[in-house]
UniProtKB/TrEMBL annotation:
GO terms for cellular component: cell outer membrane; outer membrane-bounded periplasmic space. The keyword Signal applies. Transmembrane segments: none annotated. This is OstA family protein. One of its GO terms (molecular function) is glycolipid transfer activity.
Length: 164
């Protein structure tokens, strides 16, 4: 017959081994340095994904704040954005970007600014520059008559101060 203390010791040893694998898997999973992206469902359940170094969610106000190397992808509207910080206001359907904002839409149109507000329901961007700078937007314009070129030169435009 096995003494009682040895039986107890054997059971504790088995329990320890049984718990070792799940605990070690949890620890390894917890060491991952990349946080999962925040995905917001906006209008018609189309995902809007935000990746960043850190993120906070305020359940009371329903605001997600992303900081550091922010990357947003919104495939339904063909929009990609990068910035230092972004705040997604789910109740208002609005995203505020700040800090070296770059937005690319439909693969060719772009906006560079210090702050940009994107009103999701309206599909509208409001961009503000750094002080003493300008916002830069680049839009691809389709020429309505590419085969009919005129010999008339384009009008001169004034010299503008570059924003970057």
């Amino acid at each position: 017959m096995i003494p009682r203390y040895q039986l107890l010791k054997s059971q504790i040893h088995r329990l320890g081994l049984a718990l070792a694998l799940p605990i070690s898997l949890l620890c390894v999973g917890g060491l991952s340095t990349q946080l999962p992206p925040a995905t917001a469902q906006s209008g018609g359940n189309r995902p809007l994904t935000i990746r960043s170094d850190t993120q906070e969610y305020d359940a009371k106000t329903q605001v997600i704040t992303a900081r550091g190397n922010v990357q947003m992808v919104y495939p339904a509207r063909q929009i990609q954005a990068t910035s230092a910080q972004a705040q997604y206001f789910s109740k208002e359907k609005r995203i505020d970007f700040s800090g070296n904002v770059y937005i690319l839409q439909q693969g060719s149109n772009s906006i560079r600014a210090e702050k940009v507000t994107y009103l999701i329901n309206e599909g509208k961007f409001i961009a503000l520059p750094k002080s003493n700078r300008q916002v830069e937007s680049i839009y691809m314009v389709e020429d309505s008559n590419p085969s009919q070129q005129t010999n008339k030169p384009a009008p001169k435009t004034p010299n503008l101060k570059r924003s970057n």
